[in-house]
Amino acid sequence: MQAISVFDIFKIGVGPSSSHTLGPWNAALTFVQQLLEIDVIDRIQIDLYGSLAKTGKGHATDKAIILGLMGYQPKSVNVTQINEIVLKVQKSNILIIQSKELHFEVARDIIFNSYMHERHPNTLVFRAFVGEKLLKQQLFASVGGGFIENEILDQKSHSLVCFPFPINNGADILTYTRKNDRSISDIVLQNELTLRTNKEINQQIALISETMLESIYQGCCTEGTLPGGLNVSRRAKKICDKLTDSFVHTTRNEWMLGIQNGSKDFSIINKWVSCFALAVNEQNAAMGRIVTSPTNGAAGVIPSVLLYYTLFCDYGGIEEVKKFLFTAGEIGCLFKKGATISAAVGGCQAEVGVSSAMAAAGLTEVLGGSPEQCLMAAEIAMEHHLGLTCDPVIGLVQVPCIERNTMGAIKAITAANLALESDASAAIVNIDTVIDTMWDIAKDMHTKYKETSEGGLAINLSVIHPNC
Ligand code: SF4
User: What residue numbers bound the domain in which 74 lies?
Assistant: First the structure.
């Protein structure tokens, strides 16, 4: 059994895509480590296959690879300098790898092969040469949520620590919570304590929640048009400005206080939840800093529901945020183990569907739900995302992605409320059944609906691709 930490599900990163930006970025960072013992390299070539090639340009895969080869880390790179760094490489044809200059022509050395590689729909191969001689070659699969697989990493993952509560499915969660009379987040905490100290856990939780909140706030403060050629206007700031015209705010805290003291009318709360989700995904589309949760395309759902809880419910402080994120994160782990969190494998049900299920469970726990009700909420949220396709227009994580996060957030809140008002023991569908069902649908779904931009909205909207 693979032991996955919730901190692998929530990663601080850069938009727009976890599988097409963060995964290739991490692969490049890993490959560069393999080059340490080699003195002379003349050329590096990267081959992208399948979905990575088909939507890689819109998902900034080439930029991510350049940044990874140069050693920049997704969680710490200055996001305002990304375009400048990449442009410099494109103009100079020089890449600095481990303090050495390498001739690198982006158009020649990053190759987009639109056919599928047998290993995975998101496969990439790195090769290093001296002259014509191949010195090093490494194949990676970007399997969703920024996770990557290759032989070296696979070997390492076998030696992962054993959790005191090894969880493979929803039934395991119920066994442990019932036997020990604990909440889902308590069980997750015991598992996480085998990987890091309590202090480190608290620091990580504070950093993740701060990054989520800041991505909302920045999205609500930024106007303009998103990059990529689709000319999508940012909407979060416009909605936010309209909703906040009754109070003055110059800081984030004043802004939050103003919202908290404002109207609790259903339509106002609904607009705020949508605005929060739009804000994060607009930041994501502009290569801003976000928290992958469990993917970048779906990064707006959990922050939006978490801020809804903070501002509109009976907020109990950072300990409650920890419970929310632990429970939500464990649901993400269940989907990764039992199905997929990769849109190239399972469509958007694997992204926005999973994030909605995660948010529903997290919200249910902090609103006082039992473990059974948390799992029921996750099941309800996913049940109504089953079959959702991935069809991003011109390969950008913008249409339908940005709006879709608002739907994921609203469904999560509805699912939590339904579960809290229900007898979970009478539920007809359980979480494990819905995960199995999602996986069946993923396997049956046509490739054109799996992050290839070859079906759905991506072909029915008459938009001319800027690269054509
Ligand atoms: S349609 Fe969904 S899965 Fe596909 S890129 Fe957009 S958010 Fe991600």
Answer: 17-157
Q: Is there a cis peptide before residue 16, judged by omega within 30 degrees of 0?
A: yes
Q: Which atom of ligand 1 is nearest to the CA of 347?
A: 3
d(Cα 357, Cα 351) in Å, to the nearest integer?
Answer: 10
Residue 163 domain flag: no
- Is 68 part of any domain? yes
Tell me, yes or no, whether 73 and 148 share the same domain: yes
Q: Do the domain assignments include residue 9?
A: no
pLDDT digits 0-9 by tens, 52-92: 999 999 999 999 999 999 999 999 999 999 999 999 999 99
What's the whole-model pTM score?
0.95
Tokens 């996060």 correspond to 405
CA pair distance 154, 167, nearest whole angstrom:
20
Domain limit, last residue, from 101, 122, 157: 157
Q: Which residue has the higher pLDDT, 36 or 221?
A: 221
CA 296 to centroid of ligand 1, rounded, Å: 9
Q: Which tokens belong to 62?
A: 């080439």
Ligand 1 and 237: CB distance under 6 A: no
Average pLDDT, the chain: 95
Ligand 1 lined by 47 (C-beta under 6 Å): no
CA 221 – CA 459 distance, rounded (Å): 33
397 lines ligand 1 (CB under 6 A): yes
- Give the count of domains, the chain: 2
Task: State the Cα–Cα distance between residues 252 and 268, nearest whole angstrom.
Answer: 19
Same domain? For 222 and 135 the reply is: no
CATH number of the domain within which 72 lies: 3.30.1330.90
Report the nearest atom of ligand 1 relative to the CA of 351. Answer: 3
pLDDT tens-digit map of 123-179: 999 999 999 999 999 999 999 999 999 976 665 554 456 899 999 999 999 999 999
Q: Ligand 1 pocket, 189 CB below 6 A?
A: no
Q: Ligand 1: which of 348, 394, 450 to mutate, judged by most atoms within 8 Å of the beta carbon?
A: 348
Q: Is the domain of 209 the same as that of 300?
A: yes
* Ligand 1 contacts CB of residue 442 (under 6 A): no
